[in-house]
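Quick question, first post here. What does this chain look like in 3D?
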Amino acid sequence: MLTGVAWYRREQWELLRYVSSDADKLEDTYDEWLESAERTFKEILKAGINLVKVDVDVDELVAWCRSQGRPVDGDARSLFVTHKIRLGNRGADQQRPGRE
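> Answer (accepted):
Ran it through. Tokens below.
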């Protein structure tokens, strides 16, 4: 099984916070998010789960949410990542356990 992790762009972090209905649940800065995301990514890999970093363009995310009639929130971001994996548009390479 392959699990996708949303990977955001530094230059779009403020936009992501602006468009997200749950911005209060997101880290204040990109650097805070990146530190947390990298730590979590490594922990999940060590648990033996196949991961892939999925590049998220915020404009694309917003357009997808509109087309689905969804607010931009954690559930929608997760579904968007799943959607991109199904399309084969993963962004970064797949990471297998033991290969950080």
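Helices lie at 13-19, 30-46, 58-68, 74-87.
The radius of gyration is 13 Å.
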